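Quick review question:
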């Protein structure tokens, strides 16, 4: 495994564009944490400091940081599809196979690299969230600090699943731009599934449940939006805002299932394709 990861890292770090995108994909998520130090002065009447609003308290900080940091995954998605596009355009795929790398090892090298960068991103956002939480949170009990850390696991699985989808699209079309366009097409398809389900079952709740089994929607549902939850902490009497924001194991299983499907399909495409 380490040999395959090292092989991919050499390819990525020799490419200037990939290095820049990797750097950006790791730095931008921390802009979410920078919000903790922002002070907004309202014409001298009062100053609003986001960190003092309680949104960086434990355990809600795990939810907030992982939700907003996940939006920056598109930068590394470009790296993932570029890994495949460059293999075809630079003829390195064929050369790797000639040099003794099997097609299975080729796909595994991409997948291991995805897992490696996803794990690294997860560790960084976890450590940053932990220290920001220690600084701002009024709760210092270990039971509260480490409550809801399942959002960290959900963040990691979300990254691995999304990048595996990008890997599959990269293998399917061989071109970075077209592979990213397929993400938009899939997004439209999932909404068509929703409206089709709505027509069949007659209610939006069932339609959303059906849509929840689709790749992009299942990844999104791993970490639900925290906006309502933030409002609920300030206005606990707003019972109409109550919703289920927890990480559910069945949602994790769906994303892991799609991840396995995408890696398997990527391997099948490579195995049947005439290089």
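Suggested answer, residue by residue:
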């Amino acid at each position: 495994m380490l040999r395959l990861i090292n092989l991919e890292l050499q390819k990525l770090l020799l490419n200037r564009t990939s290095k820049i995108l990797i750097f950006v994909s790791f730095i931008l998520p921390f802009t979410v944490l920078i919000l903790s130090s922002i002070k907004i002065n309202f014409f001298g009447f009062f100053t609003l400091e986001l960190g003092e609003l309680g949104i960086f308290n434990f355990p809600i900080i795990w939810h907030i940081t992982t939700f907003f940091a996940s939006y920056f995954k598109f930068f590394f998605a470009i790296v993932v599809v570029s890994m495949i596009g460059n293999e075809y355009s630079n003829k390195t795929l064929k050369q790797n196979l000639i040099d003794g790398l099997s097609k299975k090892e080729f796909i595994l090298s991409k997948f291991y690299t995805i897992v490696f960068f996803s794990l690294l991103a997860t560790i960084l956002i976890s450590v940053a969230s932990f220290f920001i939480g220690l600084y701002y949170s009024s709760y210092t009990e270990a039971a509260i600090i480490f409550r809801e850390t399942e959002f960290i696991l959900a963040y990691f699985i979300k990254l691995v699943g999304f990048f595996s989808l990008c890997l599959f699209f990269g293998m399917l079309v061989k071109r970075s731009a077209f592979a990213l366009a397929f993400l938009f097409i899939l997004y439209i398809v999932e909404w068509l599934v929703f409206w089709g389900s709505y027509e069949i079952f007659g209610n939006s709740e069932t339609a959303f449940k059906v849509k929840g089994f689709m790749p992009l929607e299942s990844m999104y549902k791993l970490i639900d939006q925290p906006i309502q939850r933030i409002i609920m902490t300030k206005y606990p009497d707003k019972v109409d805002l109550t919703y289920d924001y927890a990480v559910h194991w069945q949602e994790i299983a769906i994303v892991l299932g799609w991840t396995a499907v995408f890696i398997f399909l990527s391997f099948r495409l490579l195995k049947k394709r005439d290089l």
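Why it works: The CA atoms of residues 111 and 164 lie 7 Å apart. The chain has a mean pLDDT of 83.
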